[in-house]
Amino acid sequence: MTDTPPQLKGWTQWGFDEPFEDHAGPFFMKIADKGGEHLSAFLCEKRHLNGGNFLHGGMLMSFADYALFVIAHDELSDHDYSVTVSCQTEFLKSAAPLGELVYAKGYVTRNTRSMVFVRGEIFTEDKQTLATFSGILKKSATRK
């Protein structure tokens, strides 16, 4: 677990070790009350940029994958773990200023016994959309 940036005071991370996400991000989440809109965020740092000094597309794709699980939080709450079956990302804008927060939000389009279908968007503090994404998550065994 990583220290939370001051701008994200009150936000959390997963309650267990997530080595790749902590290294790539770290990523944070704000879980709303049941049925509310769950948000994800990270602070854009120099290490998140590509050689052209733009936010790296791979960073946006990793963040989108993380956000899928945050958005589907309620639908996955009875499961020990889940995995990404599919994740598509469409890049709309490459700029996210260094030191700015980047957010993701979205909604579940369908929830079945074994799969959750999600759509979302990644955006900056000034509401500029950087990317849209969609994905399918496979649920694991139900918690006892």
Major beta sheet, strand line-up: 1-2-4-5-6-3
What is the structural class? alpha+beta
User: Looking at this structure, what is the CATH superfamily?
Assistant: Hotdog Thioesterase
- Which shape, going by the Cα principal axes? globular
Low-confidence stretches: none
- CATH level-1 class: Alpha Beta
Number of strands: 6
Q: What helical percentage do the residues reach? A: 10-25%
- Measured between the Cα atoms of the first and last residue, the distance is 26 Å
Number of domains: 1
Q: Name the average pLDDT.
A: 90
CATH topology name, in short, is Thiol Ester Dehydrase, Chain A
Q: Please, could you describe this protein's structure?
A:
This protein is of the alpha+beta class and 144 residues long. 17% of the residues lie in helices and 35% in strands. The protein has one domain (6-139): Thiol Ester Dehydrase, Chain A. The chain contains three helices and six strands; from the N terminus they run αββααββββ. β1 (28-30) and β2 form a beta hairpin. The mean pLDDT is 90.
Helices and strands, with pairings:
Elements lengths: L18 H6 L3 E3 L8 E5 L13 H15 L1 H4 L5 E10 L9 E11 L3 E10 L4 E11 L5
Antiparallel strand pairs: 1-2, 2-4, 3-6, 4-5, 5-6
Features:
Thiol Ester Dehydrase, Chain A, single chain, 144 residues, 35% strand
Sum this structure up briefly.
With 144 residues, this protein is of the alpha+beta class. It has three helices and six strands; from the N terminus they run αββααββββ.
